Amino acid sequence: MSSTSVEDRYDVIIVGAGLAGCAAAQALARADPQHRRSILVVDLHRGVSPRFSGEFIHPRGAEVLDELGFYGRLISAGAVDVDGFVVMENAEHDAPVVLDYAAIPGERSRGISVHHKTLVRVLRRTICEREQVTLREGWRVTDLLRQGAGQSTGQSTGQSSGAITGVVLRDREGVEHRVSCDLVIGADGKASSVRKLAGIPDRRETLGFTAGIEVTDARLSQPLHANVILGGPGPMLCYPITRGAEGLSFRLTFDLPHALPAKGRELSDYLIDAFVPYLPGPLADQVAAALAERRGQLELAPTFNLPAPPATAPGLALVGDAAGCSHPITASGMTMGLLDAKYLAREARRRAGARVGTPWLDDRSLRRYRLEHDRYVPTRQALADSIFEAFRGEGEGARGIRRALFSYWRSGERQRVRSLALLACAERRPRIFLAEYLKTAHHVLHSSLAPRHASHYPVSDRLRQVHGAVGLAGTKVGVVAQVAWSQLRVF
Ligand SMILES: Cc1cc2nc3c(=O)[nH]c(=O)nc-3n(C[C@H](O)[C@H](O)[C@H](O)COP(=O)(O)OP(=O)(O)OC[C@H]3O[C@@H](n4cnc5c(N)ncnc54)[C@H](O)[C@@H]3O)c2cc1C
Question: Domain Squalene epoxidase: where (predicted)?
Answer without folding.
Answer: 182-449
